[in-house]
Amino acid sequence: MDILEIRPTRLKLRHRPIKLWLWGAFFMGLGAVTLINALGLMTASAQLRCDRPLPNQVRCTLQRKSLFGFSQTQTIENPYGAFTKGSLVYRGGTRYRVILSTPTGEQSLLTQTTSDRAQVDQATSQLNDFFLYGRPTVSVSMTSHGSLILLTILGLVIVSASIPLAIAPVTHLSFYKGVMRKVVIERQGLVRRPTVEYPLEAIAGVDIEERWQRYSKVYRVTLITTVAGIVPVHPEYVSRRNAEAIAYSIQQFLDH
């Protein structure tokens, strides 16, 4: 919290919730990246069609579509096999993908893994039947709408939760002596909040609240009033040094 003005008859303070703004920006960016991946970059559906133009030649066309409708087509020359590849996730489960073996390396049908083992095994079996038995054509389709919809919902939840942090208001605290003799708490932000005023005589004292945050204590200044009880000067907890400096400045102004 910063002291903007200090005079015998007026004290003005301002608190900018910079930590909340930074956390809000971080989570908003995280949610935005999640949404971009779920809607535009990850594969919602994939269709692979393989043909034999010549007895010793195989040509496949892989078309991927995102949940948002973006389409990408790729030609794969002379693949010779397919297999299921599993990977463990942090909760102990396994997710799978269909891998196409090609002369230049491995090619995944979906850009991400799926938990649908039956769909993966069916696609792998159809492709290997085509490669092993010399069938003229094969067409395989895979979808992953469910997991991407859940990922989209997660991204929306993260963005929604980050908005209150990103637009946390700036607190202006003003003490007036002389004719006005009042305390004004004004919170300025994108969302308009009512200004709160108390008579200066209603301020019985200043206190500092503390609480544990992870491995250390954090603090915030409160006003002890006779009309509204304990009123936090600012919603965000700050360092002890900052809280004590502000509490001292307020108490000095009230005592003189």
End-to-end span in angstroms? 21 Å
Q: Mean pLDDT across all residues, rounded?
A: 87
Briefly note the structural class of the backbone: alpha+beta
Number of strands: 15
Order of helices and strands: EEHEEEEEEHEHEEEEEEH
The percentage of residues in β strands lies in: 35-45%
Rg over alpha carbons: 31 Å
Q: Report the uncertain regions.
A: none
Fraction of helical residues? 25-40%
- Taken from the alpha-carbon principal axes, the silhouette is rod-shaped
| Strand arrangement in the largest pleated sheet | 1-2-10-11-12
Number of helices, counting only DSSP H or I runs of 4 residues or more: 4
What composes the largest sheet? 5 strands, antiparallel
Notes on the structure:
The chain has 256 residues and is α+β, with helices and mostly antiparallel strands. Helix content is 31%, strand content 43%. The protein contains four helices and 15 strands. It has helices at 18-41, 117-133, 145-166, 240-255; strands spanning 2-7, 10-15, 45-54, 57-65, 71-77, 81-88, 94-102, 105-108, 137-143, 170-176, 182-188, 196-199, 203-213, 216-225, 229-232. The strands form four sheets. It has a five-stranded antiparallel beta sheet with strand order 1-2-10-11-12, with helices on one face. Strand 10 and strand 11 form a beta hairpin. Helix 1 (18-41) runs antiparallel to helix 3. It is rod-shaped and about 100 Å long. It starts with a strand and ends with a helix. The mean pLDDT is 87.
